[in-house]
């Protein structure tokens, strides 16, 4: 008997296959954000700061640790 159902296995395969596509689409979205901010007249440095803040806020949500968990000790 399999430990994972068939639908779960195919979901993992689909996620692994689509992750490069999603990363490419995120890069395009950041490029569009920078270009639109530069066309409005925002200095280049501010456009990069805005894109960095957007990226940090997105990745921070992915790295949330459960409350009460201790940091790893090495």
Write the layout of secondary structure elements.
Blueprint (H helix, E strand, L loop, with lengths): L5 H35 L3 H19 L12
Helix pairs in contact: 1-2
Provide a descriptive summary of the structure in words.
This protein has 74 residues and is mainly alpha-helical. The protein has two helices and no strands. The longest helix has 35 residues. The protein starts with 5 loop residues before the first helix and ends in a 12-residue tail after the last helix. The relative contact order is 0.07. The mean pLDDT is 77.
Features:
single chain, 74 residues, 0% strand, flat, mainly alpha
Share of helix, binned: over 70%
Through-space gap between termini: 38 Å
Shape: flat
Going by helix content, strand content and strand pairing, the class is: mainly alpha
SS field, number of helical segments: 2
Poorly predicted ranges (pLDDT <50, ≥5 residues)?
none
Beta-strand content bin? under 5%
Q: Give me the Rg, rounded.
A: 19 Å
Order of helices and strands: HH
DSSP summary, beta strand count = 0
Short structural description:
The protein has two helices and no strands. With 74 residues, it is an all-alpha fold.
């Amino acid at each position: 008997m399999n430990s994972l159902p068939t639908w779960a296995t195919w979901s993992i395969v689909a996620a692994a296959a689509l992750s490069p596509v999603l990363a490419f689409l995120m890069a395009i979205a950041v490029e569009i954000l920078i270009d639109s901010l530069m066309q409005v007249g925002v200095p280049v440095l501010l456009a990069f700061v805005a894109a960095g803040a957007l990226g940090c806020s997105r990745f921070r949500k992915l790295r949330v640790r459960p409350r009460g968990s201790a940091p790893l000790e090495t």
